[in-house]
Amino acid sequence: MTAARREEIINACERLYETVGFKDITLKDIGEETRFTRTSVYNYFNTKEEIFLALFKREYDRWNDDLEALLRAEGKLSDEELADRIARTVESRGRLLRLLSMNIYDMETHSSPEALVSFKRSYGKSLENMDLILRKFRPEMSVERRGVFVRLFFPFMFGIYPYTSLTDKQKAAMEEAGINPNLKTVYELTKEYLIKLLSAK
Known about the structure:
The protein is mainly α. It folds into two domains: about 1-45, Arc Repressor Mutant, subunit A; about 50-200, Tetracycline Repressor, domain 2 (Orthogonal Bundle). The protein is about 75% helix and about 0% strand. It has eleven helices and no strands. It has helices spanning about 1-15, 25-35, 40, 50-70, 80-90, 95-100, 105-110, 115-135, 145-165, 170-175, 185-200. Helix 1 (about 1-15) packs across helix 4 (about 50-70). The mean pLDDT is about 95.
């Protein structure tokens, strides 16, 4: 029962986050989106940040499902094909990318140790899955090179959303500042970077 109620709260947060930013969502809003009062939400989560961290964990779990599906693929893949497959998994995780662009430090700071450990397990699983993908499709890649790939790719993901999802206000400001945004899609930006990582010697 507790797990189902926690999921209902996370689902409410997920729906609100589709149209409202993190700073503008309150525990009252989340309560109104569910059958809970603001006070009863505290029976399942200590803070708003903890609810978002649970949503964040869920997004990593969904991405892990995508990465594990890629792991089940058979045959050899060129650098371009492997970059394409990984980029497709990232492209389908828009909410994860948006969450990554937030201030994760504050989110983690205002969450309980238990919530943080649960989140880190899902994050750690994505690191492990990426390493397994490289081991399977690039068996010639050394442990050191796989480590470099992961250490470069995961921080890169923090910037994907801001570089591919400009608001009209941001676009207008860039135009006025004389900057050409030269926007790429999530897929294009990610694939381009992955090809460079895979082909690096």
